[in-house]
Each structure stands twice: as C-alpha cells, then as structure tokens.
Amino acid sequence: MQALDHTRYLALREGAQVLEADGSGDKVLRLTDGSILKLFRRKRLLTSAAWYPYAKRFADNCDALRERQIPCPSIRQVYRIPSIERDAVHYDPLPGQTLRQLLDIQDDADPLRGQLGAFMATLHERGIYFRSAHLGNIVLTPEHQLGLIDIADMRVYRRPLRKTLRLRNFKHMVRYPQDRQWLLDGRGEVFIDNYGQTQSICSPEELSIALQK
To answer: Are residues 50 and 105 in the same domain?
Structure first.
C-alpha cells in the first residue's frame, strides 16, 4: 500500500462526484477522469482488516479474477490515507451496465438469465465465492460478457467450490425482492438449467430449493 498525504489526497479528489457516503463520510468517489476512489474505514479495533485491509483485498481479488479470466475493475493503486484514517483503492470501473439496470429494458430476459446461470457455474468451478452476489454487482460489458464489481468480500479457493458454498451463494442472489422476482421467473428454470450444464455437483432440485428459500 502506498501512503497518500492529505495534500495529495485533496488534489486527487478535487472536483470528484460523491457516489456513495454515510454518516462517517465519503465512501465512493468518481474522479474527474472517470476513475473510482473507493474508501474503507476500519469499523472495529480488533478486526482482520487491521492486518489485511479491505482496500488490499479488493485489489488482490481483482488480480485473482483476472488470472481466472473473469472481467472486473482495473486497479491503479492502493492507498493508506492517515489524515482521514482511511484506506483506499483507486481503479478504473468495469465498463457496462449492471444486471439490475437492465431489468426493465429487456424484452426477452431469458438469454440473460441463461448467461447468468452459466456465469455463476464458471465462477464456482474456478473457486470464486462471491458473497455479494446480487444483480447490482454483476455487469454486462459492451463485449456481452458478465463481470464482477464490489469484490472486497469475495473469497478465492484453489479448487471448485463444494456444494454447501454453492447453495449458500444462491441464497445471496435472492436477498432483494426485485432480483428474486427476475431470477425466479418461470421458477428459475432457465437460470438453473444453464448453471447445471457446466457442473454436476448440485442437482436442479437442490438449486431450486436454495433459490426458493
């Protein structure tokens, strides 16, 4: 991580658009060149973020995804900013639209549901457990590939995911009513069928149960 003094931090964020903030301050900034500065604060004194900051996890997860040929943001730098007690990751965003942004403009959503099913199978087969899996964090790129954003809490395993992690991941995908309604159209058969074509660990019945709960 690179130390960023307060003067350089102010210069970096000059003219930035605040995309996300909370009571503790800014969280996500769009800089004037279109890149993103995502800020992380340590919420508790005794936490794993003390020795493995979330900004560094975000950058490491991007490296892991690129090694596995999964589209994701491009990291520029990881910073520690002592003056505001924050760590930050500076990156170029993944071009495209999130699946949630596409929900209301797709006349026939089944091809996209099928693509998402195959994509999730690819992630799981390549050892990716994306705990923040929802339609707002999965992007359809201009090249019609699916990729991931907001990946600080992603986990990477050396082997394909075991069944319990896969089923747990599906429950994450239906946490939001809007996502759930879209994904489970037709009882989720298109999504489930395409997921099942590239893996044999989870049966269609198990997938359906996990998604319906």
So the answer is: no
